[in-house]
Amino acid sequence: MLLLVSTVLAGARPAPAVAGAQRIVSLAPSLTEDLGALGVLDRVVGVSAYSDFPPAARRIPVVASFSSVAAERLLALHPDLVVGIAAQRAMVADVQRAGVRVVLLPDDDYASIFADLHALGALVAEPARAARVIAALRARTVSLVRSVPRRAHAPRVFMVLGVDPTFTVGSGSYIATLIAMAGGRNAADLHAAYAPYSDEALVVAQPDALIVDGAVGFASVRGRAPWSDLRAVRDGHVYTLADAALLERPGPRYNEGLAWLIATLRAVPT
To answer: What is the pTM of this model?
Structure first.
């Protein structure tokens, strides 16, 4: 038997290189950014709304929003792989029934940033490049965290993702991890990654600072409760990130969001 196996192996031709997926549809802007970081954006034939980075992604046909997919338009692109996030399972059912390979990835916690890059690297046959991207991201994170000044008390930060109703991040979110890395502490007492937050709990929490998504229209509500009842609002410790995607997308630009958080929290008194 050993002789037979050895003979077969000796006469076998080398296995062809695995090319990986060649026609990809990305259903999340963060995954589109991941694919760009892996150098395979030219293989992406369809994206979801708000896929605007790398800039070339803006020229790719949009076939989905976060919560819905135009299945006929997507299938007309003849993809061999559709990637999305776990929350999109129901919306890809028709695509899966059509026989297209669909891979849904986690996106809530900090570890998912690297897990997704690793998984996508395997799917596009670029595992070595994925490893290099991950190593570079982790190295920069270490350098940034080392720059955080030591303080007796970490400023308590409330992330404003919505104002009517109030919507924020909990301990299950990678954003809460970035806040902690930047020297802060998430002021919302939530275990879920993202959830509504009661006005009463917000006033009781009295965070030291608010980090605001510029798209939520905070200026129109800051003069009324519960926001007007917060010391952070009265004292001007409200900070709006010009490009909210740097914090809100669990993709390869997260270090830019972390750097902004570190610089911002330095100015927050505790």
So the answer is: 0.90
